[in-house]
Amino acid sequence: MIETLISRSSGLCTPKTRSANYYLVGIVAAFLASSVLLWNYAGSFNGDILGFYRIGAVLPHSPYLTPDEGVRAQGEVGYDGQFFLSIALDPFLSHAQSLASLDNPRYRYRRILFPMLGYALSLGRHSVIPFMLVIINAVCFVSLVVVVARLLADKRSSTRGALFVLGIPGFWCSLLLTTSDLMASLFLALTLLAFTRQRYKSAALWYGLAGLTHETMLAAAGALALPLLFNKQFRCAGAMLWGCIPVILWNLFVFYHVPSVGSTSGILENFTLPGAGLVQKFMSVSAGPFNAKWLFDSAVFLLLCATLGFLLLSTGARGGLRFALPCVLVYAAFFICARITVLAYYPNLLRVYANVLLLFVISLACPLWPKASRVVLLAWTALGVIFVTAYSQGLI
Question: Does residue 245 belong to any structural domain of this protein?
């Protein structure tokens, strides 16, 4: 009783209270994620699990799917989820059509961990794999909220702030379109947690897994080692950077094993001269057409610009958050150098920069302007609700 009163009066949480808070935010996250999944599975997708992959009608399908099975994007290429599904159904690319079903084989095959885990947990059963990938993403979403709660608790901040992770629209994109972004973000958060606790070998493990899930994590998470190098903590930096070795070896394997036909690195397709894509985006926003889609797209883009600027100020000004500044700078560089192809389509924009908002939620541990930070996150939550509702109703 006395311990509880002391913790309340001081604003700190006892271990028992913190554990209860972790369970609470985990339960809320699990309830929301499962509710949205069931709503879409039973309603929007009429009990068809392949609805979560937004399969197009342009490219050849996986040989383990019938030609018309699960097609929701008529006349379109589809979305990234279908490529993760193709790899999960045939992770060793033993069938020639599996390779043909990928729009950019080398690029897609580098992100191996998510589809390979789905294959392994399904014991290779093709009928189970589509369900398993969706379940993995749901578990990653819930786990991500809990890990952020632990990060906030370590910084003596309220764990309830982690619930703002549920308001990040890009994570709902990943959940409803079944991409690897949720898993990559979870590994990034675990890397940050291990790093702040000075457990650099653990950070290396999560860093390596993040890089095998999404190649951009090599830069985003690896940048954390820079302050260690500047402070001449070479052993600590080396312990962490060991995590990039499996990723480098896997990329070399992909380079030599997967045919180059139809493959690119993805760099030139996604990045250009600094500011060129942003100028094009501002011009497209100002040109219209001024409808509901334009309003949502413009709100997403402008709010992202404001959030990134706000985050740079917060991490640069607050000592307790400077550990995250290298990650923020990497995402700022990604944003400044992004092509219009990344910035134009708002599901891409929301997913690619979801970790900017994740880092912004973590910045609640030491906010520059607390009330303004919560207003920004509430605005993102409103956009997340709009996206989930519109997508579930077939409006997107």
Answer: yes
- 255-270 average pLDDT score: 80
d(C-alpha 275, C-alpha 273), whole Å: 6
Cβ atoms of 76 and 60 within 8 Å: the answer is no
d(CA 377, CA 334): 21
Residue 5: pLDDT over 50: no
pLDDT tens digits for 320-350? 677 888 999 999 999 999 888 888 877 888 9
In the chain, the number of structural domains is 1
- Of the listed ranges 13-27, 133-147, 175-189, 343-357, the least confidently predicted one is 13-27
- Could you give the CA distance from residue 39 to residue 12 in angstroms, rounded to a whole number? 38
Find the Cα–Cα–Cα–Cα dihedral 56, 185, 309, 177, rounded to 10°. 20
Nearest to 145 by CA among 32, 276, 251: 32
The amino acid that residue 94 corresponds to is: S
Domain assignment present for 3: no
pLDDT tens digit sequence for 8-57:
333 444 545 555 577 889 899 999 999 999 999 998 888 999 999 988 88
CB 359 within 8 A of CB 312: no
Mean pLDDT of 260-289: 83
| Domain annotation covers residue 4 | no
Phi and psi at residue 78, to the nearest 5°: 105, -155
Residue-range definition of the domain harbouring residue 330: 14-392
pTM for the predicted model, two decimal places? 0.91
Give domain status of residue 9, yes or no. no
CA distance between the termini of the chain:
52
